[in-house]
Amino acid sequence: MPKRTDINTILIIGAGPIVIGQACEFDYSGAQACKALREEGYKVVLVNSNPATIMTDPNMADVTYIEPIEWKTVEKIIEKNALMPFYRLWAGRQR
């Protein structure tokens, strides 16, 4: 897939707190997404409500928010970082 030159910044929404024993695969896939996108030259903005993850390591994203994953919170982050357009790239657990 060719790199999108019209997109500079990508928002990654972490899975947040999960039941013990289920967090590893969600955290790993999110961390790999952050790493791959940064290697491609995109600015990565991460929001995750769980500070005890690999994803919230300072080297994983350009900007990290440890905030509740609620619509109003995410909306403020989108506005603050001028994040447009939206594309769903990775899937995780459903709430």
TrEMBL record:
Q: Does the keyword Metal-binding apply?
A: yes
Instruction: Look up the domain of life of the source.
Output: Bacteria
The record lists the catalysed reaction(s) as: hydrogencarbonate + NH4(+) + 2 ATP = carbamoyl phosphate + 2 ADP + phosphate + 2 H(+)
Point out the gene that encodes the protein. carB_3
What the entry lists under Gene3D superfamilies is as follows: 3.40.50.20
- Does the record bear Nuclease in its keywords? no
Q: Name a single GO cellular component.
A: cytoplasm
The name this protein carries in UniProt is: Carbamoyl-phosphate synthase large chain
Q: Which SUPFAM superfamilies match?
A: PreATP-grasp domain (SSF52440)
Per the record, the coiled-coil ranges are: none
Q: Which GO terms describe its biological process?
A: glutamine metabolic process
Q: Which InterPro entries does the entry link to? A: CPSase_dom, CPSase_preATP-grasp, PreATP-grasp_dom_sf
Which ranges carry the Carbamoyl phosphate synthase preATP-grasp domain?
7-82
Q: Where is the signal peptide?
A: none
GO MF assignments: ATP binding; carbamoyl-phosphate synthase (ammonia) activity; carbamoyl-phosphate synthase (glutamine-hydrolyzing) activity; metal ion binding
- Enzyme Commission number: 6.3.5.5
Q: Which UniProt keywords apply?
A: ATP-binding, Ligase, Metal-binding, Nucleotide-binding
